Structures are given as C-alpha cells and as structure tokens.
Amino acid sequence: MKPSTLRRGMNFWPPYFFAGIRVTYIAEDWRRVDVELRQRRLNMNYVGVHFGGSIFSMTDPFFMLMAMNILPRDYTVWDKAAFIDFKKPGKGTLRASFRVTDTMIEEIEAATPNEGDVVRPVWSVVVEDGEGDIVAKVDKTLHIRRKADNRSRIGARK
C-alpha cells in the first residue's frame, strides 16, 4: 500500500478520527511518520488534560507498520509489548515523530541471518507538546522473525 493511501485511511479510521489523532506525514520510504493528537472533549480526562490512552494510541502501530514496509517480504513483524512513561500532563496539540534508521534495519538483518531467527528490538518515540516539552516517552518492542522458505520444502516430504 502506498504511504499516502494509508495516511488518508488512518485519518478516517474511527478510533483515530474520534480520538483526534491525525497522521500528518508518512515518508515514501516508510522511514518517517509524523502523528498529532489534538485536544478535544472526547480525549480529555477528569482534570482537563489528554487521556493517557489517547496518547498511547497515537503511538501504537507505527513502528510495526514501518518495519513491515521497509524489511523484505521474508520477515514477519508484530507488536510485542509497549511501555509508556508519562513525563508531564499533555495539553493542546501533541506530536510524535517516528524514525527508522539504516542502522536499526541493519541490526535486525544481522540478528536474523537464518529462517526462523527472531529478534525483539525496542524502539522509542517521544510525544511532545506545542512548546516542545516531552509529555511521554513510549518504548515499543517488536517481534521480528525471518520466515521459513516454504519453496525449499516442496517435494521434501515422503
């Protein structure tokens, strides 16, 4: 799928649309994604700041989607775990900018030279407010596995 198509689709996906989450940019090479969360009544908590679940939601699938589209097709990529460290209350429009570097991809490929090999990288993103202050840091653990080459098994059964 083209990044621009995914971006438009995610912006109308009900969990994001109603939470005030917008994907503002996806690079053609999938190495950068920018997301924002606008403050609305539907995503504020009891004390008038962003609901923590909305802050987490704005970071949820992006590293997985990026890895799926950067790595060769002989990899399986899943979200495995996440940890969010709230630094301060979030007010106004919040932003997160996801980056995947050549080094991150090279580390995955080096750790999975054979079919069936698994690696679980932890990639981080910060969520900032309009002043540039860090509201939260999110660590995402991915489960990345080199798929078995089923073509080599054709005819192997007796």
TrEMBL record:
Database matches in InterPro entries: DUF4442, HotDog_dom_sf
Listed Gene3D superfamilies: Hotdog Thioesterase
Entry superkingdom: Bacteria
Pfam families reported for this sequence: DUF4442
Name of the protein this chain belongs to: Tetrameric acyl-CoA thioesterase
